[in-house]
Amino acid sequence: MKFASDYIVGVDLGGTNIVSLLINGEGKVVGKDTRATLAQEGKEKTLSQIVNSVRTVLEKGQSQGISSTSIKGVGVGSPGPLDTKKGIIHFAPNLPGWNNVPLVSLLADQLKLPIFLENDANAAALAEWWIGAGKKVDNLVLLTLGTGIGGGIIIGGEVLHGAWDTAAEIGHMIIHEGGLVCGCGKRGCLEAYASATGVIKRTASLIKAGRKTLLRELVHDHLEDITCELVYRAAERGDELSQRIVEETARYLGIGIASLVNILNPEVVILSGGMTAAGDLLFKPVRKYARKYALEAAIRGVRIVPAKLGDNTGALGAAATVLKRKGWI
Amino acid sequence: MKFASDYIVGVDLGGTNIVSLLINGEGKVVGKDTRATLAQEGKEKTLSQIVNSVRTVLEKGQSQGISSTSIKGVGVGSPGPLDTKKGIIHFAPNLPGWNNVPLVSLLADQLKLPIFLENDANAAALAEWWIGAGKKVDNLVLLTLGTGIGGGIIIGGEVLHGAWDTAAEIGHMIIHEGGLVCGCGKRGCLEAYASATGVIKRTASLIKAGRKTLLRELVHDHLEDITCELVYRAAERGDELSQRIVEETARYLGIGIASLVNILNPEVVILSGGMTAAGDLLFKPVRKYARKYALEAAIRGVRIVPAKLGDNTGALGAAATVLKRKGWI
To answer: What residues contact residue B218 under an 8 Å CB cut-off, 6+ apart?
Structure first.
């Protein structure tokens, strides 16, 4: 930051909730607002939710003596595809009706502040680079392990956007050509195997093939209730089928990470998202398989670690986008 | 270049030949020297071959009125692994006895010029970015299709080195986990399928499985004489087995390129190396499969094209490394 008295706002625009943070130049949170996105009530409603959320954290700042002139900008992390330069959200799967929305100019009109847009997974990677698990590292890759698999890549301390803001679609690397069908319609994507969706599908197909498992008991035979978390819990309790799924998931992730390491040679690979709650049960075999499948010279010094920033990651990264675009970090 | 009167030298250090070029700031070649690497005669011999080759092009320059003061530096493109910052070649498969050779300081001592070291595939990518098939493009990927598959990646006009100079090992992306064994010892690497070695192995295994092919005739039943070039020639003549191999090779390359496009979102993908002599027979299906396997938003505007600079690519890229490190391009 230029001055100790400068502040910024970060907004994480999710399909369910909007999280806004008012932070100082070191990432210290001085105000937070969480509210429903109300995506089903339409675009205008969600826009006013964003504006009100930002105004709320600004008011929280004012009550602590932070004047409006010390607010240097607002960063918004959003699902994509989007255009970070033009500030347009082309389309957002979880926000019905959002087609080519010029979010930056719409928010600038109302908030009278500089607005910056970033892809949500890129923002998460930037946050972890700035003050998280990849602090002081030049090159890192972040994988978000959720319903799907997203990603963010930092190279030389900069977010990799690529030519048309579509870079870091890590979930759609093909690790097994001709393999399982992915949500994107192709076959063999990493996401088809190692996302929560992939884990659940692979588990279900083993159960349907007649394998015995503690999971049946845990969901009282309602197989549709099986979650990724339950699989990890059953594995911890010694369930063989679940242990096999956990081991295979780590292998698929290890293969994907190995390819990323061979291509990008990052110093740190950060895993985030619900599945990382499994801790060592996930990380130990992932590290083993990444080491097995990557080139030794590339993987030797790589750290594969959990994300550090928790629930605030998205909004912190959105705020960091302001600092980045202004050249302050 | 800072001044129109500035010149640079680029050296392509290969296992068989050393190519040196004296060029001006626009890449115009004013002197060239090619000589044997004499790798089998040891490191000292090869070092003196490099020094003599550089001195020869400098003399060619002098005879054209280019003074020694206008020579701004020498770039060397070398196989790796190497350390571009420290100027050390750790190891070079084709240069026996080269272990942790401090090439930059050794050459600087003898040539009294600034010396810069770059990985050979990175140098090729830089050359194509500078004055070749990727001119005026910010982001590109180059694949070298030879005995193995190498790569170079340009992001934001800069060579991607990664944390420890091992980035762009594109040939070792895993495209089919558990698949064919690669030269690196792992299974399922792109190189195992789509390098010249991979093409020949896949062809041989189909022939051994009893498939009929024109190739038998072309090599007078000496199957060990089958080359990648012959496979493409037989495919052009309508040989079904060869056509199948050509189509499959394009599919494997398309899958690898799709993953690269999803991860990096480049504007241009450049293919270089012997196999590209096949022209449309290679490029048409490669483009088709890359489009099939990549995300539409990422691949839509990507051009997949042959390299442009031919035999001089390596030395031109080595020279461009000097310009790059000095911040002139």
So the answer is: B226, B230, B233, B234
Q: Does A270 reside within a domain? A: yes
Distance CA A179, CA A186 (A): 9
Nearest CA in chain B to A141: B263
Assess whether B80 and B150 both reside in one domain.
no
The residues near A197 (Cβ < 8 Å, ≥ 6 apart) are A147, A148, A183, A191
Q: Answer yes or no: do A75 and A151 share one domain.
A: no
Interchain contact, A173 vs B259, CB within 8 Å: yes
Nearest CB partner across the interface for B293, out of A170, A174, A251: A174
Domain tally for chain A? 2
**Are the CB atoms for A203 and A162 separated by under 8 Å?**
no
What are the pLDDT digits (tens) for B178-221? 999 999 999 999 999 999 999 999 999 999 999 999 999 999 99
Dihedral sign (CA B61, B62, B65, B69)? positive
pLDDT at residue number A136:
87
Angle between helices B228-236 and B240-264 (to 10 degrees): 110
Q: Does residue A189 lie in a domain region?
A: yes
Contacts of B324 in chain A (CB under 8 A): none
* Within a domain: A89: yes
